[in-house]
Write a structure and sequence with these properties.
Largest sheet: none
Helix content: 55-70%
CATH topology: 434 Repressor (Amino-terminal Domain)
Shape: globular
Order of helices and strands: HHHHHHH
Radius of gyration: 13 Å
CATH class: Mainly Alpha
Number of strands: 0
CATH superfamily: lambda repressor-like DNA-binding domains
CATH architecture: Orthogonal Bundle
Structural class: mainly alpha
Number of helices: 7
Number of domains: 1
Strand content: under 5%
């Protein structure tokens, strides 16, 4: 799970914030964000490689953060998408 790809960074960010906010469980995050539990589980377990911006937005709002605050961490800020990732995203959009 802890690789150096975008999905891993997003997963770690969710876990980090939930711990800092008083050990919010994935179930609780689902309830406060309005995102299905299975969706959050898939993101946290890196089964979802490219979580959508709407999903990230809902998760951030559930954590009383803006999407900018959620995505503002060194790992994500330094991340550079590879051509294959961009092509995959375009293909699946």
């Amino acid at each position: 799970m802890y690789e150096n790809d975008y999905a891993s960074f997003v997963s770690r960010r969710i876990i980090e914030i939930c711990i800092k906010r008083g050990d919010i469980s994935i179930y609780e995050l689902s309830k406060i964000s309005g995102v299905k539990l299975s969706t959050i589980q898939n993101i946290v377990h890196c089964n979802t490689k490219n979580p959508g911006i709407q999903t990230i937005h809902k998760i951030a709002n559930g954590l009383n953060m803006t999407i900018s605050e959620f995505l503002n961490c060194p790992e994500i800020n330094k991340y550079e998408f590879k051509d294959e990732e961009i092509e995959e995203y375009v293909k699946n959009s």
